[in-house]
Amino acid sequence: MAEITLRKARAIIRGILAKGREMELKPLSVVVLDTGGHVKAFEREDGAAPGRFAIAQGKAYGSVMLGMAGKAQMARAEQQAYFMAAVNGAYGGQVIPVPGGVLVKDKRGNVMGAVGVTGDTSDNDAEAALAGITGAGLDAEI
């Protein structure tokens, strides 16, 4: 299984932050996780709230552990709230099932990890994530 390298993780973050500035988003916080849910890289822009790490991590963690991006998690939570509540219990409350949690895939469709972006609206967070991931030459599932 391919994993995100530190170099790729940093490239993804740079791209996300650049897209955020281009879109004039509020200060973003970005985490990149490997396939085991471990932090590969994290950055918090100046002015971002200090608690944003936990939100970014929760968006990415749910994506990689469930193999389901944030938009799909949110739809599942709306349709089967009991399922997402049970999942969140199983993962110690670490899952935040909203857009901005994005699966990172190689060109063959294999999951390499996940990205969590927070700071603006969830949809804007997801758009910035998509730009950063594709800009690093990888595929994304938002």
Q: Could you name the key traits of this structure?
A:
142 residues, alpha+beta, 5-stranded antiparallel beta sheet, 5 helices, 19% strand, globular
Main beta-sheet annotation: 5 strands, antiparallel
| Overall geometric form | globular
In helices, the fraction of residues equals 40-55%
- The low-confidence runs, each spanning 5 or more residues with pLDDT under 50, are none
What does this structure look like?
This protein has 142 residues and is α+β, with helices and mostly antiparallel strands. It contains five helices and five strands, in the order αββαααββαβ. The model has no long low-confidence stretch (mean pLDDT 97).
Short structural description:
With 142 residues, this protein is an alpha+beta fold.
Protein topology:
Blueprint: H1 6-22, E1 29-33, E2 39-44, H2 52-66, H3 70-79, H4 81-90, E3 101-105, E4 111-118, H5 122-135, E5 139-141
Antiparallel strand pairs: 1-2, 1-4, 3-4, 3-5
